[in-house]
Amino acid sequence: MAKIDPIESQVENAPIAWFTLPNCLTFARMLMLPFLVVLTWQAERSLFSSLFIALFVLSSADGFFARRRGQVSELGAELDSWAVSASYIIVPLCALKLWPEIVNQEAPYIMAVVGFHVVPASVGLLKYSRMTSYNTWGSNVAAALVGVSTVVLMFGGPTWPFRIATIFAILAGIEEIFMTSILRQWEPDVPTIWHAMNIERAKVETALKESEEKYREVLANIEDGYFEVDLAGNLMFFNQTLCKYLGYTEDELLGKNNRDIMSESQAQKTYDTFNEVFRTGQTGFARDWEVVCKDGKKIFFELTITLIRNSRGKAIGFRCFGRDTTELKQAEEQARLHQEQLYQASKMVALGILVSGMAHDINNPNNFIMLNTPLLKEAWEGALPILEDYYQENGEFVIAGMNFTELRARIPGLFEGITDGSTRIKQIVDDLKTFVRKGTPDMTEQVDVNAVIKSSISLISPMIQKSTSRFYVNYADNLPVIIGNLHRLEQVVINLIQNACQALPNTQHAIYVTSGVDAKGRNVFIKVEDEGKGIPAESLPHISDAFYTTNYETGGVGLGLSITSKIVEQHGGQIKFSSQEGKGTIATVDLPIRRNAKGSSGVT
């Protein structure tokens, strides 16, 4: 007989984790809900009220026992959330049949209580694909007040306690929505929004600590030389590669000044380089840096130098990456170009693999949105006459915290926004797929450039409104049409305006969008000008390169302008950038006017 591994045996004989007293109480609450429906059907008000009170008591008891017995669990929290959500839906429906006069009287408050439970739960489902289970102090207080005030209503008591409880329910719902926006991952039992912020802060601090540890480990093992010096030029930290380059041991090298390993003239150049980096705060580059090894041999380094700052932002030293270029000095330019080509090619291969998988993963849920949005719209249109009748009979009422008349006006626009957003997602995925494959898309449409600009602005108007209060558009009259692809040119304008918005330091800085025909009458141009932070001179030649970005810290991956440039090239045009740090950037897209055999062009 085969011997059973002890660990496997323990797992097989372990008690079932979900079979606990709190979970059993939660299951009992869920089983009581059908009985509430039966009592409603039989018009048993007294029994219904008694069973509701029992349900309310069990709802409080399962949380008490879970904490008292140390049986708080993710499963228990999620089960409790489903039970509470089911109660918030079933009890009002049953009450509508048993106490119609009270429900009709308190309809706005009841809908507010239900809405501000359902909406946060739905937001959580959309973000985490599971029910939120924060069990906040606010939601517990609100649930207690709603439960007690509901019992008071059932026994003919005053309405003001329930209305006060509604305020607490609304505040608790709003708090949970903000908590969902803060928490990147599903978390159970988060008492308040303050705790949610602390959870995320702790995660960031842990990630930073792990990142620093990995950073040191990577630096210690990379092939390039790495070292850190203080402001006086004394070595504070270095890796083994630098010891290998110079022939010193760690003990011999630690604390040496850079003047100890270079000539006087080189030491002066080094001082000038470090001083420039210190003065400007910008990354410095040094070529042909001559260093004397322990055995007297001279070697040459190519270095990248940046400032080291403490937590208060004060400069305390320099960090340097360097490689020995002695043997490669004569062929360094050719080697650099070759390495860049290989590096870029590997990125393009990686991008192709990424896009092929991403297109499928994104299109599936996006197709779900595109297919189901018309059904939701049809459902809304079907329910609208009923709501209109109710409105005519009872006057204004609230749905999801919004007056019916306002909701009635906004819903069509929301459905249109969902549809437009899904279409944009599909277009973006198609653009990425086209970016990594050969061939040219359909470029035979007659395109009105002004219409492209208007459509693009409409699609990203929320971002524009959030970024600047000074957004100006100047449409040229009687622009000739161009031949191309409208949706792809939309993507060009959207990318340029998005970049302009991201470059603005505050909403008081302006963005200008202009269309027109160039002086020679050969091209229609689109100009996007911002008063943002500008682009460093050394970065300007590379901003259209794939994967090049100056916004890594905000999630940039360096594909927007690369795709934009490719789309413009497919239209036979060109895109030009001019920028000045601290003053802004101008992006100009020139698109050729296609003329017919007689030399004329179409005019819009």
Overview of this protein structure:
By secondary structure, this protein is α+β, with helices and mostly antiparallel strands. It has four domains: 16-205, Four Helix Bundle (Hemerythrin (Met), subunit A) (Up-down Bundle), CATH 1.20.120; 222-328, PAS domain (Beta-Lactamase, 2-Layer Sandwich), CATH 3.30.450; 335-435; 445-592, Heat Shock Protein 90 (2-Layer Sandwich). Helices cover 57% and strands 14% of the residues. It is built from 18 helices and 14 strands. The chain has a five-stranded antiparallel sheet with strand order 2-1-5-4-3. A hairpin with a 5-residue loop joins strand 3 and strand 4. Helix 8 runs parallel beside helix 9 (193-221). The longest helix has 63 residues, at 332-394. The relative contact order is 0.05. Mean pLDDT is 78; it is low at 1-16, 552-558 and 596-604.
**Count of helix runs:** 18
Shape: flat
Strand percent estimate: 5-15%
- N-to-C CA distance: 87 Å
**In the CATH classification, which architecture of the largest domain applies?**
Up-down Bundle
Helix fraction?
Answer: 55-70%
**How many β strands by DSSP?**
14
The Rg value, from CA coordinates, equals 33 Å
Kindly report the CATH topology of the largest domain. Four Helix Bundle (Hemerythrin (Met), subunit A)
Mean pLDDT over all positions: 78
Q: Numbering strands along the chain, what is their spatial order in the largest sheet? A: 2-1-5-4-3
What count of structural domains? 4
In the predicted model, the low-confidence regions spanning at least 5 consecutive residues are 1-16, 552-558, 596-604
Overall CATH class of the largest domain: Mainly Alpha
- Name the structural class: alpha+beta
Characterize the biggest β-sheet.
5 strands, antiparallel
